[in-house]
Amino acid sequence: MDFVNAIILLLNYIFIPALTYGSQLALGAIFVTLIYGILRFANFATGDMMSFGTMMTILFTWYFQSLGVSLGVLPTALLAIPFGIIFMILYMLLIDKFVFKYYRNQKSPPVQFAMVSIGVMFVTQAVVRIIIGPGDRRFFDGEKFIIKAREFKEMTGLNEGLTLKSTQVITIFVTIVLVSLLFWFLNRTKTGKSMKAYSDNEDLALLSGIDPKKIVLVTWVIAGILATIGGALYGLDKSFKPFTYFNNMLPIFAAAIVGGIGNPFGAFLGGYVIAFSEILLTYAYKKFFMYILPESMEPNSLVQLLSTDYKFAVSFSILVIVLIYRPSGIFKGKVL
Amino acid sequence: MRKNLNVIAAYSIMMVLILMVGIFQSWNIALSIFNLCLISAVMTMGANIQWGYAGLINFGIMGYTALGGLAAVLISVDPVQEAWRAGGFDILMSLWLIVVMVLVIRFILKRFEKSKIRTYSIATIIISGILLIRFSAEPGIEAIEAVDPAKTGFLGGFGLPIIFSWIVGALFAGGLAFIVGKVALGLRADYLAIATLLISEIVIAIIKHEDWLTRGVKNVIGLKRPAPYEVDLQTTDWFIKLVEKFNSGKLSVIENLADRQAALNQLVIEGSSVFVKLCYSGLFLVVVIILLILTQKALYSPWGRMMRAIRDNEEAANAMGKNVVKQHLLIFILGSAIVGIAGAMLVTQDGLFTPGSYRPMRYTFLIWVMVIVGGSGNNFGAILGGFVVWFLWIEAAPISLFLINFFTAGIPETNALKAHLIESVPYFRFLLMGLGLLFIMRYRPKGILPEKIEIK
Q1: How confident is residue B3, by pLDDT bands cut at 50, 70 and 90?
Q2: Please, which of A21, B1, B155, B408 could form a disulfide with A275 given CB 3.0 to 4.6 Å?
Q3: Quick one: CA dihedral B242, B243, B244, B245, positive or negative?
């Protein structure tokens, strides 16, 4: 019985949260990697673009709530996401037209693109803060829990409770569906294949008659979908705050690079690598060992490798190690 | 003279703007803007010699600034004897362990050929070493943090004058830059940017959470000053006389003796804070001028020419026998050290060290905006960038408030949109910075004062 308790404990405090957080990172990381692979720059405005998409979703959620429209047990935000995506894509295309296009035509070096994206980051941050303010916003409604800890204990008779929040299930489910669709699109459709070709070798792709304008357009559309859904899921699960979203850019970058930048599948797995290592290394295993070890060997300390304060530092250290020993990432992206 | 006309014009406009703040708002505000402009200018000079001279992109400015600040704390705070007695031994032991670990790793790296076994054994040493240090230092750290946690709870510093920390800050930052440079300089430009950004976040995480060293988010307040205190000045005779002399015209108008005394007291209070700020301005100005002379000399020296050659064509410079890797590391260290000086100056001026306030927006990206806007590769441009951008950063809110009121003059005060806009005035500074950066990048990619190299 103790063994089962220990498993439930890990499931409750490590596995499910890490899977949720990893999914949110993975969506962001695919966004970064797509922009990097096809438009060829490191987008420092990633976090703020995600916060823009989330902001639009929140605004529509409020609008629907004021109309009295809801999805019952599901959060209203799910209904608002498609509208958020439309505005996100429009915003991205607008920025591309007025900012990035010029440098693309000039064939500017990636560093210049990165600098320009910092300008976009400042502007987007201002827009989001001016429209919705810098404060913490919760926009979750509907049924909060699928399994509550107490109910689970009563049901199974175990000591450890298992909590399953509906946002966690929604996040994981939506991520799986979205990522499968994306990989189907990239590997099976003509447009997806031409995007891959363009990413591999721009000149050859142009020679074989691929329209670069269409590629760029499709990239921004996919990026808009990923950014809005990733941001909205994070906001539903935790809360929406522009500053947090800006900070989330860093683990997202880490995930994209660890997975091998330019490689969407790598970015997807990279998200989970980062999330699991952050949580595994900063979790206090005391209770776990209390369950599986005999009483005489119980640990006195928390058995925590690193304090939770270093959560971010863990993922950044992983990134630095990967950059030194395997600069193309775990799953072979572009060589740096 | 003629060719420097745009430099002189740009600086004159900047000075007039600051003077206008002094006349229309207050001299206190003008001087605090001026002081922070000077500190920003030091930071931009550091970033500029990395980016402008050598083309190295360093998004870790925040980390070096914080290390400079840490130096200010460690130099100026008096040592906490009790904490040293409680846990000093454990901490020193851990330091020894770190030194031993580094030496062992160096020995292995030198002695053995590159192989998988070597890599794995080094990894094992590092991981077990970290665990060992963690467990050996834990009781010491707990003991130190338990010593009067509301006031100290850390080891304190050396109790030296805070001015020394400007040099020590540079050494700290240079040391970190050495490690970062060894690790990351081989990366391509945009990866170097990301790697340095993330490493600086690690540095901040350590400074924030290692309470025994830095007090962490509990902050260190009341650092010693290199300048006199306002309270002391207000009771000093010569200072009161000085204020009286300066304002004799204004004071003589007042007939009543008691009123005149009250007015004088008010002027002394205002004057004392202006005087303290002026002292800082003087100190900072000295640093800026020394750095400017040194960097200008370096720029036009053979070394500067070599750096530009490396920046413009790495392969060619390499083929000419220049050691690109070594020079990149050197300039990375130099630039970061200058940023470290600025960090120490900042904490010196504030008199407090708040690890929680180090955020990449303010200490990394804003500095980059300054470098790009001012003109990379040109020291005068970089300093001007520091001045212009900091001035706008502070004055953005009043300017945008004025603009909002101007454009919505016909709309009543109760209008929801107008109220909302006025409420979000503080965030217009981000908009201004972003648009400024985008416009400069697009229409004047070399900055306000572009790099100008004369071939003699």
Answers
A1: low
A2: A21
A3: positive
